[in-house]
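Work Package 4 report. The design task specified in the project plan requires that, given a folded chain encoded as structure tokens, an amino acid be chosen for each position. We show below one input record used in the internal validation round.
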């Protein structure tokens, strides 16, 4: 290898930080006397900066697309709370209907059921009303979060800040929130089981009583051991 070829390689190496001090000094001495190598260095530096700029632009675009996709997921996740509350209401009403059905099969009429436990009826009505009010509140809250997400989509900085805020909020809610469906499961099971405890137990009977409680337990465990760690990993990626 002769001529300026070796110095052109040295220029490329220095641009990539691979040239030592001695090689850099020799290159500087050569550049002081060689116009062709100075032009080569200028062109190489310009090309390197252009490639770096294109790469950074591509990365920003990819990050922006990832943030927008994450915001879409967060928007869908915001509807999970009202959906969960509504599901809880349906489960509560289903447990009541199952209990009343087995009580009637035992010979009790609706009038006897009401007169047997009027205070219990008031309590059950209060619980159902509380669930309905919680559903309305969660629905309004979710709608407000959706509007905030749409505003955040107007700028990249807004997207990043919104994603971090929402992920932190979801992780905070799941810290203890996963216990709610797990804690409700035994109550649902006991409510159904108590309604027909005088009957002979069977596999079908136990499965019927256990399906809804097991579903609630699954929801809670999924939130604790699958959903929360995944949200924490996503938050670390944004940090």
């Amino acid at each position: 290898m002769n001529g300026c070829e070796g110095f052109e390689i040295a220029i490329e190496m220095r641009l990539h930080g691979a040239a030592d001090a001695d090689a850099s000094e020799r290159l500087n001495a050569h550049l002081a006397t060689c116009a062709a190598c100075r032009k080569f260095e200028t062109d190489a530096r310009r090309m390197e900066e252009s490639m770096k700029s294109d790469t950074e632009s591509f990365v920003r675009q990819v990050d922006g697309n990832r943030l927008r996709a994450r915001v879409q997921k967060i928007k869908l996740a915001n509807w999970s709370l009202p959906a969960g509350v509504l599901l809880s209401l349906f489960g509560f009403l289903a447990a009541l209907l199952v209990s009343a059905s087995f009580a009637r099969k035992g010979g009790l009429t609706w009038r006897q059921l009401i007169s047997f436990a009027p205070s219990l009826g008031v309590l059950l009505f209060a619980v159902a009303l509380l669930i309905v009010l919680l559903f309305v509140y969660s629905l309004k809250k979710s709608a407000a979060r959706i509007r905030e997400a749409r505003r955040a989509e107007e700028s990249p900085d807004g997207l990043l800040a919104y994603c971090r805020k929402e992920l932190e909020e979801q992780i905070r809610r799941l810290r203890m929130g996963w216990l709610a469906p797990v804690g409700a499961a035994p109550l649902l099971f006991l409510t159904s089981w108590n309604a027909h405890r005088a009957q002979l137990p069977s596999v079908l009977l136990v499965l019927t009583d256990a399906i809804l409680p097991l579903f609630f337990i699954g929801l809670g465990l999924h939130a604790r051991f699958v959903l929360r760690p995944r949200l924490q990993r996503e938050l670390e990626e944004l940090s």
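The radius of gyration is 33 Å. Validation will be extended to a larger panel in the next phase.
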